[in-house]
Each structure stands twice: as structure tokens, then as C-alpha cells.
Amino acid sequence: MNHDVTRRGDDTDVLIAGAGPVGQVLALLLAQQGLRVSVVERWAQPYPLPRAVAMSHDVQRVLRQLGMGAELDGMLEPWGVDGQRFSFADGAGRTLGDSEYPLESESGLAQMSGFSQPDLETLLERRVRAEPRIDQYRGFSLDGLTDDGSGVSATIRPHTGLAPVPDGAPRTLRAAYAVGCDGANSTVRALLGLELTDLGFNRDWLVVDVIPHTPPDWLPYACQVLGPGRPTTLVPAGPGRRRWEFMIMPTDDQESVDTDENSWELLKSFEIHPGNAELVRHARYTFRGRWADRWNKGRVVLAGDAAHQMPPFTGQGLNSGIRDAANLAWRLVLLVRGEGDERLLEDYTAERSGQIARVIQDTVGLGRLICMTDPDECAERDAMLGGSVGMVHEVRENWTLRGGTLQDDGIGGGLGLQATVGSGTRTGLLDEVLPAGGFLLLGRDRDPLELLSPVQRTAWQRLRGRSAHFGPGGLTDTEGRYAAWFEQLNASVVLIRPDFHLFGGVRTPHAADGLVHNLSERVLAERASLS
């Protein structure tokens, strides 16, 4: 149900400010678990032009959890499917090194895929409009938030997208919790008075999106051209699309940088011109590296660009926002149901802000190398990078989640493996064979649920957890990947959270009771906690 008037009683479980991909994915995840959601967005329609172009495997897994697999297959271009590589070249055009894009990942999907964001936003908008548990208030801005400890009251006002409607009557929405997914200039963040940590990285770039008329076989698949001339990035941007990013130089005519004429001029050296390509858009951006010091205050939380902004050099901006949504959704579900411990939102901040800080620090570090223009500094950089650039496109170990709602056992914080499994009726990826959503106890060779004590079995039921195992009466490890994974973890049972991250694991099946106990002690409210 979607309309531009308040619903009867102005009641909802979660109010979300911002109907970009992060806000809409969060809304759909919450609605999938039975929550009522209201989304407030000042723009009447989704943004029609490309922005993000890279989707990580774990984010794709989140979207497939929402039943979007068939649509995603048509809009994604897995990077490296034909052995293509990402190359780094110096200012003279000499290749310093290259790296491959792995087609395998912990999620059973390509490590990274290109896409056009308007295609994704169209899909999300259609799904949100079809979901009866979501009320969407497009054409409204958020003017105020009041948290009285038992809920949040939000004041919204009709908005044209550019400015409030003169004399537009304000309305009030009442929610149990509110989430700010309202972008880099977040109203929610400002209302909460939350400060940002800024790494002081500010570089202006021109982003140019192009649709070649025929496959541009003369171009590298993806490359980074380094200074001392103009640093330039070329990446695939979804089926049939290419993106260039040109660093804006001090010598450029700043008034004419963001024009069609200048865009075509910059593309000329790549043999791209109006006769063989369509210029979709060009936009000037200031790349920054910063994040909110706190992501929650009372019953109000931040996610996406409202909580962090980063340069595009590792392709993690939108991906990080969807990770926020997946990490936050199951916590809000427990809290709205009255089962969740109040620490859940603090744990969300600890996990996500800690990981984001490391991602942004790494991305800004790479950005400083890419943006160099001093000839002597560039020569030193090129000597350092020669033959070792593969590292910049690997998912780093220090990006693993830490702290928060995790066991500190060397297992907690990693991603749960998704590989091909068989059941009595079908064979497919784990998420396709098992029901979607919820906590999962996964056993190496026997059902962990059978080994839970009555107390922990009750706790597991309160968490609405599931169990599965390999071996007799269970799943078939079709490719042997799970056997190797359990061996690598030195575990017999692992507990996987609804966001596909591992809470932790245990070495013996009988220790699964303690695993569930540790989780329930951390996430269940005291009245629901069982010891």
C-alpha cells in the first residue's frame, strides 16, 4: 500500500527516512519478517541516473533473500566472467600490474558485479509498492523527531523535492523506531546532533557514464590510469555500459568541467565519441572519507550515507549501506517484537562503524595513491605498486566484523558459506534450499537442535531459529565445500545470523547448547532470557 496521506492512527513499527536503495532494502527486510514500515522520501520518483555501479557478492545475497534472483540475473554483469582483469597503468601508459576478479566467493556468487543503479531502484520501488506492510510517503520531508523513550514521533511535511510546499500541512507519524537512510546531508543525523570523523580527503572528480553502440573491444575491461597526468578510472557499469572517472585538475576551466563538451573531450583519448556512443550523464563529485562517531541515539538509528561516505576506489559505498540494512533489520525485528535486548543497537554501531572506519581508511589510503600528481611522488608510488596491485581489490581480513553481537572465537564476524547443497527434493545454493531468513544452526554431521537442552531449545524458539546439518537425514555437501569449510574453522557447529554473518562456532556438537546460550544472553531482553 502506497499513498501520500497518513495511515489511520499514524502507527507503524519502523519509520525510515529516505527511499534510496538502503532505505528500501531495509523496509523490505523488515516487512518480510512481518513488521509494518513507513518510508518518508521528499522526491516523488526514484533518481533516474546512474550512481553506484558495483555490487558485492554478499549484497547480492541479501537481495536474493528478498526473492529478486531472477530480476538480478538480468541486470548484473559479473566482473571477470571471461577472464577480464583490472589493470594499473602509470602516466606513460605502462602497465604496472593487474588483478583478476574472482568468480567464486563465500556467497557462491561472483565477487563483484556491475549494474546500473536506476535498474535496481526501479525493481526496489516496484517491490515496495507491492508490499502491503509498507506505506511510502513520497513527496514528504522529515521536519522533526521526538523520542520519548517508548517510541518516536516524526513530523513530516509536503515537499517538492527541492523545497517544502508553501503552507503544506505538517503531519505526525508515530513509530517504535526510526532509521535515517537520508543520505550524506542527513536530516536525521542533524536532528540527533551526531558528529562526523573526517579523514580530510577531499578530491573533485568528474564521473561520466556512457553506453557504447557496439562492444568497445579496443578498451581495457577495467583500468586505473595514474598520474602525474590526469588520474582516470574506467570500469564496467552494468550490461552494455561503461563508466569513466576523471580527476579534476587545478588547470581545468572549473566553469566548463561538468559539460557535455568537456566530457566528450576527455573521452576522445579512449576513442569514444558521439558517433559510437551515447553520453548518459556526467556529474561532478567531491570524494570524501568520513563517518558518524555514533550511529544510534535512543530509538533512532543511522544507515547508509547518513552514517558514512567514502570515495569509490574500492566500490564499497552502496555495498556498505546495504550491509548496514541487513545488519540492522534483524535487530529491529527482535526489538519490535519485544524480545530484543536494548544493547542490540549499540552492538549495531560497534560492528558497522568499526568495519566502516577500516574500509574508509583503506579506501582513502588507496585514493591518496591514485590522486598523486607530483612527478617524484608518482615515481616512488609506481615503484612500490609494480607487480603488487592485486592486493587493492581483495577483500581484506581487517574488514571482518568485530565486537558487537559476535563470539570472540576466531569464527564470529566472518561470512557464512553459501555453496551448492542437496536435499531430498532439490539441489541448489544453501539459501535456495533452506527457507529464507532467521538464525541458523548448521551442523557438520548431525542436527544441532537435537543436542540442545530444554532451556536453550526454548531460547532458540524465541529467536525463531532454524537448524540444518549434513550427513544422514540432512543435506548433501554436493561439492565438498562445507566439509573443507568446517575443517578450516575447526568447528562442528556454526551459528549463522540473519545477515549471513557468523555469530560463532563450537568444536563439538554437544557444545551447541553453549553457543545458543551465548547468543540468547546477548540478544534477548532480560524478561525473555533463559539461563
Walk me through the structure.
Helix 11 (454-462) packs across helix 13. The strands form 5 sheets. Strands 1, 2, 8, 9, 10, 11, 17 and 18 form an 8-stranded mixed β-sheet that branches. An 8-stranded mixed β-sheet has the order 6-5-13-14-15-12-16-19, with helices on both faces. The chain is globular and about 70 Å long. The chain has 531 residues and is an alpha+beta fold. 28% of the residues lie in helices and 26% in strands. Residues 1-10 have low confidence and may be disordered.
Summarize this structure briefly:
With 531 residues, this protein is of the alpha+beta class.
Write the layout of secondary structure elements.
Blueprint: E1 11-17, H1 21-32, E2 37-41, E3 54-56, H2 57-65, H3 69-75, E4 77-78, E5 85-89, E6 95-100, E7 112-114, H4 117-130, E8 134-138, E9 140-147, E10 152-158, E11 171-180, H5 187-192, E12 196-212, E13 222-225, E14 232-236, E15 242-247, H6 260-267, E16 277-292, E17 296-297, E18 300-302, E19 308-309, H7 317-336, H8 343-370, H9 375-385, E20 420-422, E21 427-429, H10 430-433, E22 440-443, H11 454-462, E23 466-469, H12 481-489, E24 493-496, E25 502-506, H13 512-523
Parallel strand pairs: 1-2, 1-11, 2-8, 5-13, 11-18, 22-23
Antiparallel strand pairs: 3-7, 4-7, 5-6, 9-10, 10-11, 12-15, 12-16, 13-14, 14-15, 16-19, 17-18, 20-21, 22-24, 24-25
Helix pairs in contact: 1-4, 1-7, 7-8, 11-13
